[in-house]
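$ run holo --ligand "pyridoxal-5'-phosphate" --emit tokens
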Amino acid sequence: VVNFTSDNCHGVSGPILDAIARANAGSAASYGDDAATAGLASRFAALFEREVAVYPVITGSAANALALSTLVPPHGAILCHEASHILTDECGAVEMFTHGARLVGLPGREGKLWPDAVEAALARFEKGSVHHAQPAALGITNASEMGTVYRPHEIAALSKVAKANGLALHMDGARFANALAALGCSASELTWRAGIDALSFGATKNGAMAAEAVVFFDPHAARDFEYRRKKAGHLISKMRFVSAQLEAYLEGGLWLDNARIANAQAAKLGRALQGRLAFPVEANEVFARLPVATAARLREAGARFYDWTPPKDGDVLVRLVTSFATRDADVARFVEIAGTE
Ligand SMILES: Cc1ncc(COP(=O)(O)O)c(C=O)c1O
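-- output --
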């Protein structure tokens, strides 16, 4: 079956599965006191070219909610894109973990936030007024929910507005590898050098079984994170299996190799569906308007994908997500049916 529903519907990258099996030998200290977890600090420090605080968790929603709850008080407001995962797809986890901070969805362009929308939103809040939630963080997603990618200078422009208004800047990097592979810059350029304070570093969508990491670029900003993670039930007792996945993910650049494959498959789909695209194809997601009949024929042929919006005027906007496991034949078959219409 050609499955483009999501990148997390695919399996686990071979080297990561092998690393899990290796971690199974013998015993190790629990709750993150093992060697693999201890080693993450230096691995992530090397990757980001500075000392960081890094904490493994097993879902992206937990990473986002725990990171934001550390940065934002209960009376805070978090500004984000109106289609952002934290706002639309996490069942209010951020609100719950922050003890009630408000998520404020803003309009964007190409699935991304821009400084003008952030400034306009900030003008609606009265700073220091007890009657208003107090803007405390800005959340962006890279690669975005629309498969587009923030460049370092675009993040820096958002950071300038954020910092001028006392907001922390969080990046949901569920697809950070895809963004980085697309741009070819360094991980530091795409994060703290551009003003990011905390990152949800995703791995599950790009080949891990269940592994994400919360990264604070100023280790002091992590404050009480560890207590929050435990209290939320996200301090995994057999942490070594999560950390082993992150180790193998980074080892030898597997994470970027995987992301490059996913991005290249999406690019092929994008080229075939040119003229039907709703957003530029920059990472591993393709949003295309297909005739309803074509979408139906693709499904009859075994293809799986989501309709993103209800059909309109005979067309339907579909989302196609590729992964490290997407095969050339999958793309070719899909294009054969869809691309020629
Ligand atoms: C942009 C984005 N952020 C975060 C997540 C985290 O997801 P989960 O909690 O399912 O690991 C996802 C998964 O769909 C996502 O697409």
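-- notes --
Strands lie at 53-57, 76-81, 102-106, 134-141, 168-173, 198-202, 212-216, 285-291, 306-307, 315-321.
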